[in-house]
Amino acid sequence: xxxxxENRDAGAWAQPVHRLTVSEGHINVSGRRPxxxxxxxxxxxxxxxxxxxxxxxxxPSEVITVWKEHFPEFWPAGNRFFAPLAGIAPGEVAALDLSxxxxxxxxxxxxxxxxxEESFTLMTPEGHMFAGWITxxxxxxxxxxWAQAQVLMRASDPLYELGMTFGGHRQExxxxxxxxxxxxxxxxxxxEVSAExxxxxxxxxxxxxxxxxxxxxxxxxxxxxxxxxxALKNAFRRHEV
Amino acid sequence: MQPxxxxxxxxxxADGAVIDLRxxxxxxxxxxxxxxxxxxxxxxxxxxxxSQVDYINSTGIALIVGLLARARSDQRPVSARxxxxxxxxxxxxxxxxxxxxxxxx
Lengths: 241, 105
Hints:
The complex is a heterodimer of chains A (241) and B (105).
Chain A: E1 44-52, H1 60-69, E2 80-82, E3 93-99, E4 105-115, E5 119-123, E6 130-141, E7 144-155, H2 158-186, E8 193-201, H3 216-225, H4 227-240
Antiparallel strand pairs in A: 1-7, 1-8, 2-3, 3-4, 4-5, 5-6, 6-7
Chain B: E1 7-13, E2 16-25, H1 30-39, E3 45-56, H2 58-73, E4 78-81, H3 85-93, E5 101-102
Parallel strand pairs in B: 2-3, 3-4, 4-5
Antiparallel strand pairs in B: 1-2
Helix pairs in contact in B: 1-2
């Protein structure tokens, strides 16, 4: 029996998980390993988006409660977050469908790595556009409560790195700015969003080129291309029965 | 127990430097970690001693990733010691353990 005292953060962290599992019907999630920012290919970025919730009189924990409960509702149209049945809680896995240029739907997921009263963190799996995590938090500063989304990421592979350079970063900025603005408006604040981007490591990790094998964008495109064939196959099966 | 801000003290050893960490690693630990790494400038191994750390949240883990990125850029091997079983598990799930040697004790 361990004699070590239980840490205050113990209940906030997910239990170790080597491979993610999600319900049937979602691709590019089950069997994938969660990835830290160091597992990606591209430059490492820290992006911080903030909005003031001045005038709402809500505490940081009240903001996070609302954010967890309504998380998918704040996303831009065309993007879907399939919230876990247990909600945003440590160790839960959510599937995502993200709208990409050219009408492509990119299917991937996230692991809830950490969740406490004033923050929660989502960690990406292999194949996601980036390796890393996104921390959503609320805090009191300058007499107001603020909501913040902070992304620590590396593009997962060379294709994503190229995509991030040519519009991907801008699309991501728009995604989280929209989310914070929608949250603020839901809570009765004006929703002005500031963004700060810092390059944590300019090096690209060429040893991670092989990550392209898991690329969820390519796999989603192949899955979409194969949809008519699958539908035909299912129709024949039904006919035989 | 009152929350304690992080103290990070750097000392030189024969094969590099040790950063002794004491308190809580959360968003407020940024300056302490940055200063400690700056003070550890130079070649050789970098050992992070977590034996006096009693709280790490996800923002704190992100700061440790930033420190690892700097060490990697400087081509310095990083190891950690003094992790409780709980924090070993956290280093496993965040996969930080892929990028540093976890020492016993």
